[in-house]
From TrEMBL:
UniProt family annotation: Belongs to the TRAFAC class myosin-kinesin ATPase superfamily. Kinesin family.
The protein's role, per its UniProt record: Plus end-directed microtubule-dependent motor protein that regulates the length of motile cilia by mediating depolymerization of microtubules at ciliary tips.
Sites where the protein binds ATP: 71-78
Gene giving rise to this polypeptide: Kif19
Domain Kinesin motor: from-to ranges: 1-315
Organism (species): Chionis minor (Black-faced sheathbill)
KW Protease (keyword) present: no
Protein name stated in the entry: Kinesin-like protein
Keyword Hydrolase carried by entry: no
GO biological process, one term: microtubule-based movement
UniProt KW keywords: ATP-binding, Cell projection, Cilium, Coiled coil, Cytoplasm, Cytoskeleton, Microtubule, Motor protein, Nucleotide-binding
Single GO cellular component term: microtubule
Entries under InterPro entries matching the protein: Kinesin-like_fam, Kinesin_motor_CS, Kinesin_motor_dom, Kinesin_motor_dom_sf, P-loop_NTPase
Amino acid sequence: SHFILQQKVVLVDPSEDPDDVLRANRSREKTFVFDMVFDHRATQEEVYVSTTKSLIGGVISGYNATIFAYGPTGTGKTYTMLGTDREPGIYIRTLDDLFKALEANAEEMDYTVSMSYLEIYNEVIRDLLNPSSGFLDLREDSRGSIQIAGITEASTTNAQEIMQLLTKGNKQRTQEPTAANKTSSRSHAVLQVTVTQKSRRKAIGREMRIGKLFMVDLAGSERAAQTQNRGKRMKEGAHINRSLLALGNCINALSEKGGSRAQFVNFRDSKLTRLLKDSLGGNSRTVMIAHISPASTSFEESRMTLIYAYRAKNIKTQV
């Protein structure tokens, strides 16, 4: 079990025997400190306001931003990101506020917003808005930014339409029952929003700003033992873990960048890290929302999740 103070999570080992004299001084109680910690009473709005709302101004100014939902299956990642019609999650709330802010500035700037929604499953990319298009390729353009060949780009500023698009897209995600969860998402879902603005003033060399926003609902981070996976599921888990490991390695290398040796950051290890290269290391602000379960059976998972998230906290990028 764990209990939560405003910025602290205290994880208590459920298997401990309080009367064990030998271990009295060596309790496996671990404290992790984060920028924000929410318990089960937190609303979608509170989580959004504390984690994501402040990134919107940056995207409009031409910076990139990335929001990750991380954690084991069944801890609420998809709920946080997509939510329900009555309790929409970060996707919709962010886009709502983004459109409002762009609208308020519309006299000065012409803007376009395009969105794509994709999944990375077993190291292949599928378009969730048009699943029949098969597997898509990552390509690097002349400026070195990563493009996905043939992805559907939707441009709408109507929140209802977007919610329908995303809910429909989310149903296309590769889901399989595992011992951990009946509808476990076995893929990483990435909502990519590109905001392009041009100044309306007829000056020479009108400025153009491009900001990218990635919102990523990662696949469950649990270990194979927890899902009792065999065969195909086991392979799939290896791919999920491979991309999460690659992401973890990039995070480690980035968080050690200030250290004595210049770290090489290997973004090429997985499709996920290649796609997010600019948003992780470059001109970007990044938020990770780590999810843990209060169940005592999830102690190990919670511990691993907290360690991973704690590392991510040490990344310093020069925006």
